[in-house]
Design goal:
Helix content is about 55%, strand content about 5%. The chain contains 14 helices and 3 strands. Strand 1 and strand 2 form a beta hairpin. Helix 1 runs antiparallel to helix 2, helix 2 packs across helix 4 and helix 6 packs antiparallel against helix 8.
């Protein structure tokens, strides 16, 4: 049943490889839990069993540390999906997981860098050496488009149209979106394409990837993450910097500049506007600060 469900996610839902890997890991833990409870058939699972599994996720056990709210919620989503799939295909008479709801994570503002820190980080890449040109182009692209690092390193030359100032990003589930890029990113990409990439490309086997490593192959996500961390260290940026930092900064700065949340949703490639609405918290926070400073009776 697990294999059938995972095949369904790949073939019918077209989920990304990383998501599939997470589902497989989460469902393996669920199967191990049921085995310890001497439950050998999914039909024998009750709502109480699923609820107790969620409690174990939050509290931890001898083999696993407690999971954060978001991780426990993701695991329960996988479990609920398995039960729903089994009922839909007539393999179970009822859905025991239907009424067990994922825990709600606290709403926190996305971690974004102020504009001056972003500019320092971009400038820390330098403008001369071949790899510095590549690194500047990569970080300019991430901030200009809000692309995930996996989307950026997955770019091929045909996906980038510098004349029209656009880039075709392939997001989760293979969904594509066309995103505009700003003039500084266009300039950085052009400098890298003309002055740096050809020298890197001759070391490899002719990959169409935009961003190449020192051996001429496609730049990996891990290497791209290291580019970001190294630039942050050189720039003296002390805030925590993760692969999503520039993506969050892109969205936050758009919202602060007055962009419509639906436009930001399209640019980020979010399936639901609910995911994007967390950035409205940033706007509300900024409005509150301005109100407090400007209104004569705000502090009364």
């Amino acid at each position: 049943m697990l294999r059938g469900y995972l095949d369904h996610l790949v073939v019918e839902r077209g989920i990304a490889e990383n998501t599939l890997r997470s589902y497989r890991r989460d469902l393996r833990r669920y199967a191990e839990y049921l085995d310890r409870r001497s439950i050998t058939a999914l039909a024998d699972v009750t709502e109480l069993v699923v609820a107790e599994f969620l409690a174990v996720l939050r509290e931890g056990d001898a083999d696993h540390p407690p999971l954060a709210t978001s991780s426990a919620a993701r695991t329960l989503v996988a479990v609920r999906g398995l039960h729903r799939f089994a009922v839909r295909d007539g393999l179970l008479p009822a859905d025991a997981a239907r009424e067990v709801h994922p825990p709600t994570p606290p709403r926190r503002l996305p971690k974004a860098l102020p504009l001056d820190r972003v500019e320092r980080l971009l400038e820390a890449c330098g403008l001369d050496e071949p790899l510095s040109l590549r690194d500047r182009a990569l970080l300019e692209l991430l901030y200009s488009t809000g692309a995930r690092i996996s989307e950026a390193v997955g770019l091929d030359l045909d996906d980038v149209d510098l004349a029209e100032r656009g880039v075709l990003l392939s997001g989760k589930g293979g969904k594509q979106r066309l995103v505009p890029i700003g003039r500084p990113a266009v300039a950085a990409l052009e400098a890298y394409r003309v002055r740096s990439r050809p020298g890197l490309a001759i070391r490899g086997r002719g990959t169409p990837a935009v961003f190449l490593n020192a051996r001429g192959g496609r730049l990996s996500r891990q290497s791209a993450w290291q580019v970001l961390r190294s630039a942050a260290d050189r720039a003296g940026v002390t805030e925590p910097v993760s692969p999503h930092t520039l993506r969050h900064s892109f969205a936050t700065h758009l919202m602060e500049g007055g962009a419509d949340v639906r436009v930001v949703q399209e640019l980020l490639g979010h399936a639901s506007v609910t995911t994007t609405q967390v950035y409205t918290l940033v706007t509300v926070d900024s409005l509150r600060e301005v109100y407090t400073l400007a209104h004569p009776r705000a502090l009364d």
